[in-house]
Amino acid sequence: MAHPTLEDVAARAGVSRALVSLVMRGSPKVGKERREAVLKAADELGYRPNIMARGLAAGRTGMAGVLAADLHDPLFASVHDGLADEAARRGVRLLLASGGGRPARERAALGELLDLRLDGLLLAGPRIAAAEIERAAAGCPVAVVGRPVRSSRVDCVTGDDAAAMARAVTRLVELGHRRIACMDLGSGRPRVQQVFKAALAEAGLAPDQDVLWRPGGAATAVVAAGDATGTAALTTLHRAGLDVPGEVSLVVLGDAPGAEVNGVTTVAAPAAELGRLAMAALLDRIGDGGAAREGRRVTVPPVLAERATTGAITP
Amino acid sequence: MAHPTLEDVAARAGVSRALVSLVMRGSPKVGKERREAVLKAADELGYRPNIMARGLAAGRTGMAGVLAADLHDPLFASVHDGLADEAARRGVRLLLASGGGRPARERAALGELLDLRLDGLLLAGPRIAAAEIERAAAGCPVAVVGRPVRSSRVDCVTGDDAAAMARAVTRLVELGHRRIACMDLGSGRPRVQQVFKAALAEAGLAPDQDVLWRPGGAATAVVAAGDATGTAALTTLHRAGLDVPGEVSLVVLGDAPGAEVNGVTTVAAPAAELGRLAMAALLDRIGDGGAAREGRRVTVPPVLAERATTGAITP
DNA sequence: GTGAAAGCGCTAACAG
DNA sequence: CTGTTAGCGCTTTCAC
């Protein structure tokens, strides 16, 4: 028998289907005798409950969906660690789908997840329009991580990139640096420079004539905006013959796996923690059973991991 | 109405449920008139088919499961690109689950995926025992990517690390290198050194007294076994004051995203292609409808991406 | 073409 | 405690 059903188990154990159902769900009100008979029969038959059928009948599945905007983003893997942890802790299974980095695909994946009628949906770094998220939330509990969404019925958990920038700068200032530059591979993003200038100002520093780092500049420290930029920064500094952290200190905003291996000092949102909080919010919302609670809005402060690319300035 | 059903649509359109079902699945044998009425009603109601119910009734879901051993492995994201592409091309939806890098979790995730009764299962780089994979394959079409599994009913698609090593070495030899060293952060893996020696021998070179790279050695080229090792190698070489590729050439086995950004020459299995082939094998198997075909075994040759860390030797 | 009837495998009242 | 009775939302014969 390829896939024995509840009925097969019942027949073999000589009991009714309902009894088997109770046993499978670990109900306490079944006699030890019969329970064991049922378990034995199920085991011998290699019985596995059909989740679809269960979900259909019960009206809930015990599963939550996770939509990853882009599997290539190493951040997602860390977020997922937190997500999975919290879900496991609360006995909820996770099903993932990927947006493949493209809004169109993401939209499609969202639709499929919605059609599965899972108990809830967690959107990780969604790139689709807020209105679409809102619409999804109308039919299913939704939480978002990694992107602020202002909506009454969506919980959302985010990091704080401005705070991260500020943390990087203040740390460098503590170390004695006064001429700090910023590096951004995705250059032209005005927000990065803006945030950088604000952080500088907050630390009581005036930006140099040029905010961005350039070889031969006077900067004694560099803040790299993003993981890719960070790796590139390291390479560039080395190529320029600069000793790190002897001559130049480097702080990277973001915490890709490579950073730890290479001993790069980083400031980043604690991804797993974001994930955990988002999942907690989602499960709470599911638990509330649609008590149209106000959307929870959580911002998590960044974490500094001081490794080997930063040092005190020694004139 | 939170989730209108087929029946609601039928009522609104003034037809029977069966007719709506036909329309929703795009059957050609429905009059234009009625079809449009149904579509209109469905749209107005915001109807979305319930996949669980559909799967239960139809006996197939139109979905395949993908079990990722470890989401942190950037390789998986690339494999998934290929997977998703092929699945989309053939009209199959994908549902992912993660093994979280731990065999125990992976086993659990496999069970959940199995319980969903999807049409097929794709295991990406599984770490669980071959026997467990075999067992899963008894109840559901299964294909494996990234790990060789010899089984009559499992298709599997893998890269070829020995060939990758050989490709790296022959390329370096073409460039004039004769003293080539190997670097392996996960040191102690005997297989790596063994494969390296074999590649050297094949290229007509004798290994130096010591196979592994060491600062101050005479090697003019280094092969780094793995992405992490590659990044570390680059840093180490730079720290040692060596010009790359002026004094030392570097080839990394593996193709993490950072490699391209940093212009590192790599040799790696074409991950997306592996994914595509594995998904194709799985869908073929599903299509065969359990015609206990012999397991397909595909090995894909590695690809050299020559970037900026390799150069001809100029004595 | 179209509608009625019979499930898919399971859960959830409800009587015994 | 146990078995019976209805469905969950959809697909699928099979007559009309």
Class per helix and strand makeup of chain A: alpha/beta
Radius of gyration of chain A: 26 Å
Based on Cα principal axes, name the global outline of chain A: elongated
Q: List low-pLDDT spans of chain A.
A: none
What is the oligomeric state here?
Answer: homodimer
The helicity of chain A comes to: 40-55%
Strand order of the largest sheet of chain A: 2-1-3-4-5-10
Task: Tally the helices of chain A.
Answer: 12
Total strands of chain A: the figure is 11
N-to-C order of helices and strands of chain A: HHHHEHEHEHEEHEHEHEHEHEE
The largest contact between protein chains, plus residue counts on each side, is: A-B, 49 and 49 residues
Strand content of chain A: 15-25%
Mean pLDDT of chain A: 92
Written overview of the protein:
Two copies of one chain form a homodimer. Chain A is an alpha/beta fold. Chain A has helices at residues 6-13, 17-24, 32-45, 51-58, 74-89, 103-115, 130-139, 161-174, 190-202, 227-239, 257-261, 271-288, and strands at 63-68, 93-98, 120-124, 142-145, 154-158, 180-183, 221-225, 249-253, 265-268, 297-299, 303-305. In chain A, strand 6 (180-183), helix 9 and strand 7 (221-225) form a beta-alpha-beta unit. In chain A, helix 1 (6-13) crosses helix 2, helix 1 (6-13) crosses helix 3 (32-45) and helix 5 crosses helix 12. The longest helix of chain A is centred in the C-terminal third of the chain and has 18 residues, at 271-288. The radius of gyration of chain A is 26 Å and the shape is elongated. The first copy, chain A, starts with 5 loop residues before the first helix and ends in a 10-residue tail after the last strand. At the A-B interface, helix 4, helix 5, strand 2, helix 6 and helix 10 of A face helix 4, helix 5, strand 2, helix 6 and helix 10 of B. The structure holds a DNA duplex (16 and 16 nucleotides). Chains A, B: Residues 4-58 form the HTH lacI-type domain. Chains A, B: InterPro entries: HTH_LacI, LacI/GalR-like_sensor, Lambda_DNA-bd_dom_sf, Peripla_BP_I. Chains A, B: Keywords: DNA-binding, Repressor, Transcription, Transcription regulation. Chains A, B: This is LacI family DNA-binding transcriptional regulator.
